[in-house]
Design goal:
Blueprint: E1 11-13, H1 16-27, E2 32-34, E3 41-45, H2 49-59, E4 68-70, H3 74-77, H4 85-94, E5 99-104, E6 121-125, H5 130-139, E7 143-144, H6 159-166, E8 172-175, E9 186-189, E10 196-199, H7 205-212, E11 217-218, E12 242-244, E13 249-250, E14 254-258, E15 264-265, E16 271-273, H8 280-295, E17 301-304, H9 313-324
Parallel strand pairs: 1-8, 2-8, 4-6, 5-9, 10-11, 12-17, 13-15, 14-16, 14-17
Antiparallel strand pairs: 2-3, 3-7, 4-7, 5-6, 9-10
The structure holds threonylcarbamoyladenylate and magnesium ion.
C-alpha cells in the first residue's frame, strides 16, 4: 500500500454494484472497510497471507495481535475451527450477531497463519449486518476484519471515522451509515475447558450466561502474564485527550462526556451526553463518536460521568478504562 497521504480512498455506496466492486478488490488481495453491526471493520481475504500482511501494515498493528475471521454462519465457522458444545450453543443463540468465538483451529482451516498470529486457535464471527454478509458471500471466503482504525485509536462507527484514520492507506470504503451497536463484539473463548470471557462487548455477559445456563469467568489480564487475547492491551482506544473517569463535576477547561445529565461544569461548547435518558444501548452506540468529537475540541482533559457496571455498561466501562490508561502501558 502506498503511503502517499494525498491519495484519497474512494468511499462508495454499499449497493449491489458497490458490493461487487469491493468483493473484486478483496479477491485481488486488497483492503476494504465495511460496516458491521458493531463497528466498521477493515476486511482482507483471511486465507491470503499477503492480504493479511497488507492489513497489518495499513493499520500499523503489531502482527502478534490476531484477527477475527468473519463468516456467514456456524457451518462455515466449523470448517475453520472445532466447536465444542458450548461454542455450538453460543453460536445458535447469538449468530448472526455481535459475538466472537475463539476455538481450536480445525485441520481443514484455510485461514492464514498470519491472521491467527500463529496461534493454535482462531477467532470467528458471523455478523448480522446486511452489507457485511453480502460482502462475505460475494468474496466467497472468510474475511479477516479488525476494527477499521489505526492501531490504538478509537474504533470507527461511521465511514467518515474510517476515512479520518485510513484515507490513502486502504483501497475502498463501503458506506453503510452509522453502525447500530457501536461497541465491538463480545469475545468468548471455548478452548476445551470452561468458556472464558476475553472481551466485554455488545452482547452482555448476563446474556451469555443465560444462554449457557452457568456463570462465565472473565480472563483476568495480570501484568507480566501473556494475555490470552493479545489485543487486549491496557492502553487502547486512545484519544489524544486524557480521560478523567467517574467525574461528577468538571473544571472550566475540561470537555464533558456526560451520561444521564449528572455531570455539571466543564468548558462551554465541549459537552456531549452519551444518553440523556441513561440508556446503555444508546450510550454504547454513541461512545466512540462522542470521544472523537470531544477529542477534536483540543482540550487536554475529558471528564466522564460514571456509567453503571451492568449489561452493556461493562463494555462501555472497559473501553473508557483503556482510553484512560497511560499510553504505551501493556498488560
Ligand atoms: O466487533 C468486532 O469484533 C469488530 C468487527 C469489525 O467485527 N472487530 C474487532 O476486531 O474488534 P479487533 O481486531 O479490533 O479485535 C479482535 C480481538 C483482539 O483483541 C484479538 O487479540 C482477539 O480478538 N483475538 C483474535 N484472535 C484471537 C485468538 N485466537 N485468541 C485470543 N484472542 C484473539
Ligand atoms: Mg480494534
Amino acid at each position: 500500500m502506498n503511503e502517499d497521504s494525498t491519495r484519497r480512498t474512494p468511499l462508495i455506496a454499499a449497493d449491489g454494484e458497490g458490493i461487487a466492486r469491493a468483493a473484486a478488490v478483496l479477491r485481488a488481495g486488497g483492503l476494504v472497510a465495511m460496516p458491521t453491526e458493531t463497528v466498521y471493520g477493515l476486511a482482507a481475504d483471511a486465507t491470503s497471507a499477503s492480504a493479511v500482511a497488507a492489513l497489518y501494515a495499513a493499520k500499523q498493528r503489531p502482527a502478534i495481535n490476531p484477527l477475527i475471521a468473519h463468516v456467514l454462519d456456524a457451518e462455515a465457522a466449523m470448517g475453520e475451527a472445532v466447536f465444542d458444545a458450548n461454542a455450538r450453543a453460543l453460536a445458535a443463540a447469538f449468530w448472526p450477531g455481535a459475538l466472537t468465538l475463539v476455538a481450536p483451529l480445525s485441520p481443514r482451516s484455510r485461514i492464514s497463519d498470519l491472521a491467527r498470529a500463529g496461534l493454535g486457535s482462531v477467532a470467528l464471527r458471523a455478523p448480522s449486518n446486511r452489507i457485511a454478509r453480502a460482502l462475505i458471500a460475494a468474496a466467497g471466503r472468510p474475511l479477516a476484519a479488525p476494527s477499521a482504525n489505526r492501531s490504538g485509536r478509537v474504533s470507527p462507527t461511521t465511514a467518515a471515522h474510517v476515512l479520518a484514520d485510513l484515507d490513502g492507506r486502504i483501497d475502498l470504503i463501503l458506506d453503510g451509515g452509522p453502525t447500530r451497536l457501536g461497541v465491538e463484539s463480545t469475545i468468548v473463548a471455548c478452548l476445551g475447558r470452561a468458556p472464558r470471557l476475553l472481551r466485554h462487548g455488545a452482547i452482555s455477559l448476563e446474556a451469555i450466561e443465560a444462554a449457557l445456563g452457568f456463570a462465565v469467568e472473565a480472563e483476568e489480564l495480570t501484568a507480566g502474564a501473556a494475555p490470552l487475547s493479545p489485543g487486549l492491551l491496557a492502553s487502547h482506544y486512545a484519544p489524544r485527550a486524557r480521560l478523567r473517569l467517574e467525574a461528577r463535576t468538571a473544571a472550566p477547561d475540561e470537555a464533558v462526556l456526560d451520561f444521564g445529565g449528572v455531570l455539571s461544569g466543564g468548558a462551554p461548547g465541549a459537552r456531549l451526553d452519551l444518553s440523556p435518558m441513561a440508556d446503555l444501548a444508546e450510550a454504547a452506540a454513541r461512545l466512540f463518536g462522542h470521544l472523537r468529537a470531544l477529542d477534536a475540541s483540543g482540550l487536554a482533559t475529558i471528564a466522564v460521568a460514571p456509567i453503571p457496571a451492568h449489561g452493556l455498561g461493562a463494555a462501555i466501562n472497559d473501553r473508557l478504562r483503556r482510553a484512560a490508561a497511560p499510553r504505551g502501558t501493556e498488560l
